[in-house]
Amino acid sequence: MRAVVVETPGELEQLKLTQNVEMPTVGENDVLVRIAYAGLNFMEVLIRRGDYLRNPKYPLILGSEASGIVEQVGANVKDFKPGDRVAVLSGDRGCYAEYVCVDETHVVPIPAEMELRTAAAYPLQVLTAWGILFASARIREGDWVLVHACAGGVGLALVQMARIAGCQVIGTTSSEDKAALAREMGCHHVINYTQQDFGREVRKIVPEGVNIICDSVGKVNVIGNLRSIANFGLIVVFGYASGEPKYDEKLLWGRSCGITMNGLYHLVPHRTEFNRAVRETTQWILEGRLNLHIGQEYDLADVQEAHRQLEGRQSQGKLLLRINSELK
Question: pTM value?
């Protein structure tokens, strides 16, 4: 099969399209999926560069999420069969390829009304956003929510879900184009952090501070987050694009606020909550309340350019790789 292989960590040239990669082996609890589209995520930039918190073994196939058609199932798999349309969570590797094999608990059925193109933008970012707001933060109607990188894939999902929950939403981004997109998706207030101190601007909008901060940026946001958070508020960290954040406990105590980390793969084993997340978010998409904004698509051979856009923060919404896009 064709796949994008990273032999050793490094720059864009480490993304190598390889033609004759060995097919994955299907275990008794596994589902083999022929991939239509793969989603791109900043986590994959970190893995490619060797900057990821966990230390993966190289060489590896990048890719964390995809959509496609079930090709084969293991002997113990009961909920999926060949021909099913699905979305896939593959951990931190495997989806920049024509096929991926994952445990059945990491496979999500896709309704007939949802295109596979849309489904590729769904599993990692949408379910991550749900977990941040409803599992970690347990948001309530009327809360003020600050979303960093609000025009990215997770950011746009956070904005829309917070609105669905009846919250007031402030977003930060780096350009007017991105700000316009965030407003279009329902963000009440957008701050351009390249021109304004977001911590001070937040306090102008809501003097008592925000209840929840959703932060995938990390290190450079620490001071601004502490300025922005309300007493008894919660900072949810789910990424570190600018480096690992370090919060002084004394400063957190000064706000009586908390900080937590959120990772989607802690939600997956909690099947009641995970199934609720899938059920609610799928329904919101079908109802048109949750719009998965797809920014650009790239052929698998153009993966270096896709990473260039993602790494340079030039993208809006979700980026996809077309792999077997003829699949329906």
Answer: 0.91
Measured CA to CA in angstroms, residue 5 lies from 21, 22, 33, 262 at distances of 9, 12, 18, 28
Give the long-range contacts of residues 277-285, CB within 8 A, separation 24 or more: 277/127, 277/130, 277/131, 277/134, 277/135, 278/108, 278/127, 280/130, 281/122, 281/126, 281/127, 281/130, 281/161, 282/111, 282/114, 284/160, 284/161, 284/164, 285/114, 285/118, 285/122, 285/126
E strand map for the chain: 3-6, 16-18, 30-39, 60-61, 65-73, 85-89, 99-103, 107-109, 144-147, 168-173, 189-192, 210-215, 229-237, 258-261, 294-299, 318-322
**In the chain, which residues have pLDDT < 50?**
none
Q: In this predicted structure, what is the pLDDT of residue 162?
A: 99
Walk me through the domains of the chain, giving residue ranges and CATH numbers: 3-122+293-322 (3.90.180.10), 125-265 (3.40.50.720)
pLDDT of residue 55: 73
